[in-house]
């Protein structure tokens, strides 16, 4: 993420920070190797303060592509995958450089590395574009990780909001998604109490706690 105290949220697309990006990436690989995590979120970063987004877009894209190719080569040596996550600029971060799945897909195409994937957070995707069913179908070949949170409060999936998560989970399953779904939400209260939505979802699917089939027992 760079230096949060200096207002940074990632370095990969920030001009002039290439050396810091490479140092941070090596540290991330070291941690990922230690905990056995094969995926690393390569954060794009923010449009520099006091600059116009359109004016620096070309330079930031060039920097991003250069850094991503470097990252892909390093990660391939570790059999790891780099992830690009669009973060919405309407609610969460107005200055974040990468903010739509379409933008991320265009960058991935230009970089051209198979071990770079899309980290699709449905919270950000809904805020920026909606049309989640079609977007999941369109970008599914690029997806390396899914994250969820209800919109607009960013709480549990069963909290009041815009998204029908049982439908979306069924859609992911029908598309053949076999990866993890990260719970990128802020619990409204107690963490364990907030996981009641998952227990209810398992029960609705005829599964026991932990996702094991009752029929198998």
TrEMBL record:
Organism: Pteruthius melanotis
Organism superkingdom: Eukaryota
Pfam families the UniProt entry points to: AP_endonuc_2
Active site per UniProt: 85, 184
Catalytic activity: 3-hydroxypyruvate = 2-hydroxy-3-oxopropanoate
Protein's UniProt keywords contain Cytoplasm: no
Domain Xylose isomerase-like TIM barrel: 9-200
Homology family: Belongs to the hyi family.
Enzyme class: isomerase
Gene3D superfamilies from the UniProt entry: Divalent-metal-dependent TIM barrel enzymes (3.20.20.150)
Protein role: Catalyzes the reversible isomerization between hydroxypyruvate and 2-hydroxy-3-oxopropanoate (also termed tartronate semialdehyde).
PANTHER family per UniProt: HYDROXYPYRUVATE ISOMERASE-RELATED, ISOMERASE
Gene Ontology MF, one: hydroxypyruvate isomerase activity
Gene responsible for this protein: Hyi
Gene Ontology BP, a term: glyoxylate metabolic process
The protein's name in its UniProt record: Putative hydroxypyruvate isomerase
The enzyme's E.C. designation: 5.3.1.22
Keywords: Isomerase
UniProt-listed InterPro entries: HyI-like (IPR026040), Sugar_Epim/Isomerase (IPR050417), Xyl_isomerase-like_sf (IPR036237), Xyl_isomerase-like_TIM-brl (IPR013022)
